[in-house]
Amino acid sequence: MPKVTIYMPDALAERVKALGLSMSPICQSALQQEVDKVTAVQNATRNLDKVARRLRKTIEEHEVASRRQGFSDGTKWARDTATMSEFRRVAGTHRE
After folding, report:
1. Burial, 89: exposed, middle or buried (Cβ in 10 Å; 0-12, 13-18, 19+)?
2. To bridge 89 with a disulfide, which of 9, 23, 29, 94 should be the other Cys (CB 3.0-4.6 Å)?
3. What is the pLDDT of residues 36-77, one digit of tens each?
């Protein structure tokens, strides 16, 4: 097992020594918990990135289809049913 150096404030080192705590298992446990937490966050983030990319693609596809349908519907409305007053309102030139 490799040896590592851990730096801590003098006051903390004195309290650890006064309590007779064994730093190695405490540090190992704390580091293991942190590694597990960071790994879980990385895995979740990686999965969320994939989901977000997939969802963005479906939104874009839906928006393209929706815009095409809206253009088609608007063209049909303008050609077949719109009044001059409605055109002015859509164009922003109509004052109520």
Report:
1. middle
2. 94
3. 999 998 888 888 888 888 888 888 788 889 989 999 999 999
Which DSSP symbol is given to 87? H
Q: Give the separation between CA 63 and CA 56, rounded to whole angstroms.
A: 10
Question: What is the model's pLDDT at position 33?
Answer: 97
Q: The pTM is what?
A: 0.48
Annotate 50-70 with b (16+ C-beta within 10 A) or e (fewer): eeeeeeeeeeeeeeeeeeeee
Judge contact between 81 and 73, C-beta under 8 A.
no
Instruction: Supply 87's token pair.
Output: 């055109």
Residue 16's pLDDT is what? 95
Task: Provide the residue type at 32 as one letter.
Answer: Q
Domain residue limits, the chain: 28-91
